[in-house]
Amino acid sequence: MKHWFSDVPSFRRNQLQFFLDKAAESNEPAVRLRLGSKRLWLITGPDLARTILKGEDRIADKGFFIEKLRPIVGKSLLTINGEENTRRRRAIHAGFSKGAAQQLVPEIAATVREAAVELAKQDHFNVQDAMAQLTLRIACVALFGKGVLTRGDENLVINAVRLVEEDVATELFRVVPAMPWQARAKQKRRAEARAMMQIVVNRVRDKAKDSSALRALIDLGLDDEAIRDEIVTMLIAGHHTTGAAATWILYYMASLPELSNIMAEEAARLANCSGEFNNEALLSATKSQALVKEVLRLFPSAHWFSRDALMPLSAGSNTIKTGDSMIICPWQMHRDERHWPLASTFDTNRNFSSKAYLPFGAGPRACLGLVLANMTLQVIALELASAFEFEVHGALPTPIPTGSVTLIPPTLVLRAHVRKPSSFALAAE
Fold first, then answer.
1. Which end of the chain is more exposed for a tag (fewer CB within 10 A), N or C?
2. Strand 125-126 vs strand 318-320: parallel, antiparallel, or unpaired?
3. Is 30 helix (H, G, I), strand (E, B) or coil?
4. What is the pTM of this model?
5. CB burial readout 284-302, b (16+ within 10 A) else e
6. Beta bridge mates, 325
7. Using one digit for the tens of pLDDT, what is the confidence trace for 2-31?
8. For residue 305, what are the β-bridge partners?
9. Where does residue 414 rank: exposed (0-12), middle (13-18), buried (19+ CB within 10 A)?
10. What is the model's pLDDT at position 428?
11. What is the pLDDT of residue 426?
């Protein structure tokens, strides 16, 4: 018998499969979920999803689930609404725009090459750990500017993010309140993380590059607390999602060697006589673009979004009432055979203009860092493919992620063999 909590066992058993199974129950564009007393819908229709994401503020807004994150990320873009949200987005967007992202390509490439040097020294490496550290450093370049953070500052940032990122995952779908000792432990972690991040903000605020996101926040006149909350939010959102996607890129380049060769060939074609990428050339790098897009289709790092209805919405034969919460799940939508042929198969020759393609959301509140993230993933694929041929160390794991704040890849260990000049030359021809 269906009741308020009837879907909780299935959700806890396997969150990702739960969304796929619920969507398969009906052809309706919205399916009712029973995960608590709050009325909740899974939006499975691409048209309805885009109406919700792209519509005016009077249709839907952040609500129930996002509010649960306020104790962790404070009053940041993730949790605030209205004019202040618009003001901050406008300022930060300048630092993450297409032109600004292109200007960062040489610095991103240099950061990837530094990581490649470290990988070359290791017999084997954990891909998820390596990519998380690499993408966090790249995020810091975008947020603060190249060379603004010392390695000690970077370590403080890494530790601060690690202290709070697990809390984000556990709080989102919590049904039973945390026990008092658990709550105290979380408060302690959050206080430590805030203190660490405040140290970094204090150190670098006067050195932040004019084009950086930190400078944009400072110029808005935000106080230290608001700046700290925004930086923590962007680091958690940015490095986690991009690092997970980068892990899947290396997974496919290791399991499909020909794919790695194709990336190396494209890298050789793009590079100038100094071996550097031309910023504009990335726009014509169709092979690496398709790789990034297909990875984000199969494994969208931001695998669900939530909104609360501010007015009744028609959803086929159902009506979503004012105040109902809605989940839009790219993981489910990207694997729905109704929208994608052979949906679970890796295929870079797809048409990614489908309305059912939503790795970064859509509309005025789409991910601010989508241009930077796509470009970062392209550069990682091209630089590492041109430097290495990858080999799986041990048994190849079944590529099944774990649903958390982002899609967490399974443990994947690779060997990185330095690509021989002869094979690189052949790839370039």
1. N
2. unpaired
3. strand
4. 0.88
5. ebebbbbbbbbbbbbbbbb
6. 40, 308
7. 888 899 899 888 989 999 999 999 999 999
8. 328
9. buried
10. 47
11. 46
